[in-house]
């Protein structure tokens, strides 16, 4: 698993993907950070991370689109699958490499907070709550993206498919309120990323949300592994 | 070392492999021969665990690929038809990665250096794989298969894309490797298999049609039923007379070789000796028979014959060619 993780991580930084992703996400973060914290003189960092939720949901599929589709297309999956490693290890290696790029990006967003922290006393629990929540929904959408990437040989299809799922996950709350059906609304509240994420921006560390996102990761990584396994039988 | 039993692979209604059985002894080089789409790569992909079989069983050194995939994969070095190379890595990075992926225990630097010397990729060691020529990519693919000194090597068309000099080098390399490895290589190039392999398995349309050493294959199939004769007399008359000989199925004239004497290739039904009937015909018609020899089929002819649509592998026809274990295969051959 570590061999695959290291290779994938290296390939992110040898290609422009990681730099473009980090550049765009950090630029947007900087803009909102400036608007809210600097010009708005607000200590409310949750608002910045709240806006970044939408952007990250849209940009993260760019990290996952190639994970398994490229291997399939270039036949490098033959090297992975015929090596003495399990499909589960392959999937987790791929997942963790994309997650690592995201983690590094998010870690950089903490720099302004540390600078402010040197001169004043920000609410650290609030900042880290937001940080952890961003990591969690990010991990979930990465797991979904890796799964979609395993379904196709085309990176474009994987990208568009995952962005579509991201948008659906963001819009699903408004679907719920559009319909006056309690059952439908309950189902929506189970799936909604937004509903799980929002409490964190208010400074509430919700364990059930943590369990939710971790479960999404586990389930989709499991499905991806099954998908790789089932391809052998087709 | 490798035991394949009743291997069947179906893609939907399309049967890629039809109850293929064979075994490979330790330390032999087995050539897997067949036209494109015969099922060579499918068989290799199943042995290495990349694909799974619809039916049947593969064991390598006693370990079943289904029950102990990790054990089997540790024993096998595999070069697929298209070398599984990451274009964004240098040769060094790639071999380091494959070394880690395969969990090799041999000291890393020394081991990789040795393999690079063996397949002669030292001068491109630090270059990006994407920028290498096809021949070098192929060699990096072979290097990757050799990592960890696996006792079994499975090479799917190892010399594709190499220039003639490299082909000879790689063939010699494979021959040397065959001394302490079990090698299975596939090819549709006959001289290659002839030059390298101790045993040949001919596969066509998912069915094994022949199994034996190169010499045995060409000998068994040629026997006495194809003759080259020099007969004196007008060409069309001789041909007409020869057609009356019993069991002649194919007749061809090579033209005048001496004044008034033409050379003919006379092919009889498999297993039938034509020589006596031919002699009788020549005497009866007053055509002096000046020379007669049996022509050994080249391996190329054998291959073409075995893989032609009309060929039906029946143990009665060529008892020596079809091994007992694949006798059930012949039914499958009828539909092929």
From TrEMBL, chain A:
GO CC annotation terms, alphabetical: plasma membrane
Signal peptide start-end: none
Keyword Transmembrane helix: yes
Source organism of the structure: Candidatus Caccousia stercoris
Segments traversing the membrane: 12-32, 44-64, 99-120, 127-148, 154-172, 203-223
Keyword field contains Cell membrane: yes
Gene Ontology MF terms: ABC-type transporter activity
Stretches assigned to the ABC-2 type transporter transmembrane domain: 41-205
Protein name: ABC transporter permease
TrEMBL record, chain B:
UniProt cross-references to InterPro entries, sorted A to Z: AAA+_ATPase, ABC_transporter-like_ATP-bd, P-loop_NTPase
Domain ABC transporter: 2-230
PANTHER family in alphabetical order: ABC TRANSPORTER, ATP-BINDING PROTEIN (PTHR43335)
Pfam family, one: ABC_tran
UniProt xrefs under PROSITE patterns: ABC_TRANSPORTER_2
Designated name of the protein: ATP-binding cassette domain-containing protein
One of the record's GO molecular function terms: ATP binding
Source organism (scientific name): Candidatus Caccousia stercoris
UniProt keyword annotations, A-Z: ATP-binding, Nucleotide-binding, Transport
